[in-house]
Every structure is written in C-alpha cells, then in structure tokens.
Design goal:
Blueprint (H helix, E strand, L loop, with lengths): L1 E5 L31 E2 L2 E2 L1 H4 L5 E6 L2 H13 L13 E2 L7 E6 L1 H10 L4 E5 H8 L5 E5 L7 E8 L10 H5 L10 E5 L4 H8 L5 E5 L7 H4 L4 E6 L3 H5 L2 E12 L1 E6 H6 L3 H18 L2 E9 L3 H9 L11 E9 L2 E14 L3 H10 L2 E8 L9 H9 L3
Parallel strand pairs: 4-6, 4-7, 10-11, 10-12
Antiparallel strand pairs: 1-11, 2-3, 5-6, 7-14, 8-14, 9-12, 9-13, 15-17, 15-18, 16-17
Helix pairs in contact: 3-4
Length: about 375
C-alpha cells in the first residue's frame, strides 16, 4: 500500500510525499511505452507528426471495450480485428485509420504524447490522467454508456453514523495534522484536488490492493473515493455516500488531441465524420417513425388536427402528403399520409391520439439515424480550436 498526504500550505495544487508529511516538492515521472522523443523537456513534434495514419485508441478489456465496439458497429463503423490477440485493428469505412486497443489511462497518456489522435474513454479517466491539460479536447462528452460517478463514501457506523454531508465530514474535530482523515483511492490527482477545493486540510490518501470497499472495515482507511454505479457494493459493505461527496458524473466520451486536430492531415475531417455518425445514431435511439393515413379536405386541415395533440408534433412538425387513389374512374385525394417522429416512451399514447382524430393504417418502424443540418458539437469543436 502506498500513502501520500495533502499539505495545506501550498497555494495551488497539493504537495505529496511518498510516506510522510514533508515540505519538499517531489516530482513524479511516468514512462510509457511511447517512443516519442523528448528534447529539453518538450515532445519532439517532428517525430510525432511523421506518421500519416490517424490513430484511434479504444479500451482493450471489460464492459467499456464491448460497449464501445457495439456503439461503433451501430454507427456503421465496425472494427475489424484479424487476430483477437493483436492490439491493432482497422475500421474499413475510415480510410487511413488505425485502431489501437489500450488501457483507458494509456489512451489519455498517448493522446497527450502524440501517439494517438482520437480515443474513447470515461470522463473519470480524462480527468484523472488528463489533469486539465489543454491539449485534450472533449469532442463528445455523452456517449450514453459506461455511466458511473466518482464518489466519496464513509462507514455507516461508529463516528460516521450521523455524518451525512461533506461539510459535516470536514467539520469533524477528529481530523488534525497528527491524525488526518485517511482516504483510500486510485484517483491520486482528482482526490486531493477535490478535498482541497472543499476545505478539507488534514487528509492522507492511500492506494490499497483489491477492493477499496474493504479498507474501512480493515482499519486501513476512514473513507474511500471510488467509482460507483448502482451503490449496491457500498451498501453491502456498510458504506454510504454523502451529500456533496460526488466529484464527477462519468460516462464514455470521445476525446482528441488538439495538436492532431490542427496539424495532422485528415484528422479533423475524420473526427467530423465520426462525430456526425455518433450524433445521428444517439439521437435516433428510442425514436420511432409513425406513418398513418387520415381523411381530410386539405393538408392544412389535417395538420390542424394533428397539431392539436401534444404528442404528435414530431421533431419539427408532421410531414403531410396527399394519397392519390382512383374512384369511379377518376383520381381523387381524399386521404393524406402523415409521418411523424415519436419517442418510445410516448409511442402508445401517440397512436391513441392519432386514431382518435381519424388516423388509420398506422405503421411503426424504429429509426436508425437522425442527421441534423449540422451537429452543435461540431460547431463547439471548431470554436475550441479557434477555427
């Protein structure tokens, strides 16, 4: 188990020491598998920009990996991996793209080093390993899977029994310079930053092997800071979340290197295509096309009836067109075809309303994509890049 401590006197980010409180400033270095050259403490851009392929980092294992592949497949961006033991693959629909399967934290690190250009990881990973670096750009921050929250949890018993908020935790007289609050966590950047921002001065952080939920019961820690999905594991280990103790809400996100977007040929265009496919698919989830015939004297009269019902307005309004049929030797248009887009949760209610105003022959089909004139996230991205 490694231990480090939050030192109150620092004016900005906290100071850490490996085993005890110290006034010394320690610089921690991380060496990855990257072969990027570093000259005078800076990444050698010429080495980074030599390659022509656009590299996309995807999670290599676990639920996040499977859900990422499923999402890309739904967007017609299936990942083709010749050998499941290999860490490199391709997306045939994206020419000049290489897919690299990596650990989420390595995806963020390699985006910063220039070894990757785009990546999909959780927002918690971006925050912990990106550390507010301006070269990381959030292209899409809500891919709608991998939902969890980074939260502080304390025991339900003992001195914490009546503690239900972060403010109450900070005001407990037990925490002193000599006996600080002990927090077990794997988030050595976000944890100390959060505690300092919320006025907890006397805190130590430790990283324990295995499940963090066991740390308080074993006497290793007073609290834990970890990712929580349903909260079941916390409850089963007699732990509770507290008001104000959620650091961030996390889910899968598309992240890019600012340098790659602005300097590597084709990266911005590929990002645009991926973003449009993602947005179109995500917007269409749980949406249905409803088509019906309705008798009426004119398209305007039919539209008036439809718009009188709150569930039948569609995305921008109903599409109405005449239905031509032959009667007594002549062509007539006594019916109109109505097409609207309806969310799944309002589907049955919408069908009922449609039939109540004269709709018949109702057909329903799921939507795959809804493309906007231009996705707002694309405009936001261009603004972030100053383009």
């Amino acid at each position: 188990m490694s231990v480090w401590m939050l030192s109150a006197p620092m004016p900005s980010l906290p100071v850490f020491s490996s085993t005890h409180i110290s006034a010394k400033r320690t610089i921690w270095c991380c060496v990855s598998q990257s072969q990027v050259a570093v000259v005078n403490g800076r990444v050698d851009d010429s080495r980074v920009l030599e390659r022509s392929e656009i590299r996309i980092g995807l999670p290599s294992k676990g639920r996040m990996a499977a859900d990422t592949l499923d999402l890309l497949k739904d967007c017609q961006l299936s990942v083709k991996q010749v050998n499941p033991r290999q860490y490199v693959a391709e997306i045939p629909q994206l020419s000049n793209a290489e897919v690299w399967f990596q650990r989420p934290k390595d995806i963020v690190r390699k985006l910063l080093s220039g070894d990757l250009d785009l990546g999909i990881v959780g927002l918690d990973t971006v925050g912990e390993y990106g550390q507010d670096n301006e070269d990381l750009i959030l292209v899409h921050d809500a891919l709608e899977y991998g939902d969890c929250r980074l939260s502080l949890a304390i025991p339900k018993y003992g001195i914490f029994e009546n503690i239900n908020s972060l403010k109450e935790l900070a005001q407990m007289p037990q925490w002193t310079y000599e006996k600080p609050l002990r927090v077990a966590t794997g988030f050595s950047y976000l944890g100390p930053k959060f505690m300092k921002e919320n006025g907890l001065k006397h805190v130590t952080f430790s990283t324990a092997d295995g499940a963090l939920e066991a740390a308080p019961a074993m006497g290793i820690a007073d609290a834990i800071l970890d990712l929580v999905s349903s909260g079941t594991t916390l409850r089963e280990n007699n732990l509770k979340e507290i008001e104000g103790g959620v650091l961030l809400e996390s889910q899968a996100a598309l992240v890019a290197s600012r340098k790659s977007l602005t300097e590597r040929k084709g990266t911005l265009d590929m990002t645009h295509e991926i973003l449009e496919r993602l947005e179109a698919h995500l917007r269409a989830i749980d949406q249905f096309t409803v088509t019906a015939n309705m008798r009426g004297s004119s398209a305007e009269e039919v539209a008036e009836r439809i718009l009188s019902q709150p569930s039948l307005s569609g995305l921008q309004g109903p599409t109405i067109s005449p239905v031509f049929c032959k009667s007594d030797g002549r062509v007539a248009k006594d019916y109109y075809a109505i097409v609207i887009c309806v969310p799944k949760k309002a589907l049955y209610k919408s069908v009922q309303q449609l039939r109540a105003i004269g709709g018949s022959g109702v057909l329903i089909s799921p939507l795959t994509y809804i493309f906007d004139e231009e996705t707002p996230r694309w405009r936001e991205l261009l603004s972030k890049l100053g383009l």
